[in-house]
Design goal:
Number of helices: 5
Structural class: alpha/beta
Keywords: Flavoprotein, FMN, Oxidoreductase
Oligomer: single chain
Order of helices and strands: EHEHEHEHEEEEH
InterPro entries: Flavoprotein-like_sf, FMN_Rdtase-like_dom, NAD(P)H-dep_FMN_reductase
CATH superfamily: Flavodoxin domain
Number of strands: 8
Radius of gyration: 16 Å
Low-confidence stretches: none
Organism: Pueribacillus theae
GO molecular function: oxidoreductase activity
Distance between the termini: 30 Å
CATH architecture: 3-Layer(aba) Sandwich
Pfam families: FMN_red
Length: about 180
């Protein structure tokens, strides 16, 4: 099994720090899981323009293939003006709809307003639902004050990140072993 952690921004460092921490926990929980980080800051993605995703080249093709090659995900995003950055929305637009079908996603958001946690409920979960992904019931919202010197200092947040990591593993393993796709047509 392979998990892809996505740092869904091209600015700042906090989102990547949180996603890396979640991936570190995944490694500690189950060493058999292959772990990969997709830091959108390190790729030059083209804007989605409606064409067949297979026709993209370069970094855009690499990123689409990375997402398609994973079995489950932890997706992190900053919250800007109450919403996700365009870079993450562009990633969702670039990937074929079937890419996330029947795969588990755990969400983490970072923001400066405590009410921004609602963005996960009101924006990310509906997108994941449209893409037919299974969403971990719990998620993590990390406030900017939970960081000091590029480290997460809030022990409660670290516990939440650990629990989210456990949850996505448990859900993905359960789906992989118990979910039977039936053709009803």
């Amino acid at each position: 099994m392979k998990i892809l952690g996505v740092s869904g921004t091209i600015t700042g460092s906090k989102t990547k720090i949180v996603v890396e921490r979640a991936l570190d926990y995944v490694k500690k929980i189950d060493q058999n899981i292959e772990v990969e980080l997709l830091d959108l800051k390190t790729y030059n993605l083209q804007f989605c323009d409606g064409r067949d995703p297979k026709s993209y080249t370069g970094d855009t093709k690499k990123v689409i293939d990375m997402v398609a090659g994973a079995d489950f995900y932890i997706i992190g995003t900053p919250v800007f003006h109450g919403t996700m950055p365009g870079t993450l929305k562009n990633l969702f637009d670039l990937i074929p709809v079937e890419t996330l079908k029947d795969k588990v996603i755990g969400f983490i958001a970072v923001g400066g307003n405590l009410k921004h946690y609602l963005m996960i409920e009101n924006q990310l979960k509906p997108i994941a639902g449209y893409l037919r992904a299974f969403v971990a019931p719990n998620y993590v919202f990390v406030h900017n004050d939970d960081f000091r010197n590029s480290k997460i200092i809030n022990e409660d947040i670290l516990t939440q990140i650990f629990n989210l990591s456990k949850e996505v593993i448990m859900l993905q393993k359960g789906i992989k072993t118990n979910f039977v796709k039936e053709n009803i047509y």
